Amino acid sequence: MFNDPFHPEEALSQAKESNKRKLLAVVCAVAVTAVLLAGYAAVRKYHAMQVAADTPPAVPEPTPKGPALAHVVVDEPTLEKGMTTIGGVVKNVSNEQLSGLSVRLEFRRRKDGKTEETVLPVTPAHLQPQEEGAYAAKFPVDDFASVRLAGVHAGPQSTLIVYSSSQGKKRAPERLQPQTIIVKRAGKPGEFINTPDNPGRLP
Questions:
Q1: Could you read off the pLDDT of 46-55 as tens digits, one per residue?
Q2: pTM greater than 0.70
Q3: By C-alpha distance, which of 59, 58, 73, 66 is closest to 161?
Q4: Omega prior to 129 cis, within 30 of 0
Q5: Tally of CB atoms within 10 A around 105
Q6: Which of 130, 127, 74 is nearest to 100 (CA)?
Q7: For residue 89, what are the β-bridge partners?
Q8: Inter-residue contact 66 to 160 (CB < 8 Å)
Q9: What is the layout of strands, in order, in the sheet containing 144-154?
Q10: Residues 6+ apart with CB under 8 A from 148
Q11: Are 185 and 193 in contact, with CB atoms under 8 Å apart?
Q12: For labelling, which of 14, 149, 152, 203 has a CA lying 20 to 30 Å from the CA of 31?
């Protein structure tokens, strides 16, 4: 029976070799992760470039020129039961009939300050010269902070037309309901509430 002698140098060498292998494995894992992340970022960038190339650039709507064809009266928004009513009147100031009239409004949201647009139809749909039509809509008070007139459209293609505008009806001032406050008097009937002999506190 032979005893295997212990060689500390050999054990130390094996431990160093094991540490080197572990370190090499960690370095390889980090390198592979970095390569994968770089590849993913490159693929996303390429995809974004492809989408941008396939998406046609937005063509700005041409600004109409010439005399105003419609006059828009914008009433001040009114508040009632948590809702805001926005509306007004559109008058045909041209010499021809206007059909398919609509008013485009731009709202600014309260939560993030961003803007969004909505289109409100004018009733009746056809206006003869000097005739008037109305537009209106209701929105929750908490949704929008402000609104402005952004354009007027007409015709079967909803073409932007030249218009003029003015301020309409003012919002009626809020009426405060009168309140009756009843103060309960202290002491006996006929006595003053606060006297040098009978001081009292006012509620």
A1: 767 676 556 5
A2: no
A3: 66
A4: no
A5: 20
A6: 127
A7: 73, 134
A8: no
A9: 115-121, 102-109, 144-154, 159-160
A10: 105, 106
A11: yes
A12: 14
Which amino acid, residue 35? Answer: V
pLDDT in tens, 152-176: 999 988 899 999 999 887 766 555 5
Question: Whole-angstrom Cα distance, residue 20 to residue 80?
Answer: 76
AA letter at 175: R
Please identify which residue in the block is written with the tokens 């009433």. 75
Q: Kind of pairing, strands 70-74 and 163-167? A: parallel
Instruction: Report CA Rg, the chain.
Output: 39
Pairing of strands 132-140, 126-127: unpaired
What distance, in Å, lies between the first and last C-alpha atoms of the chain? 108
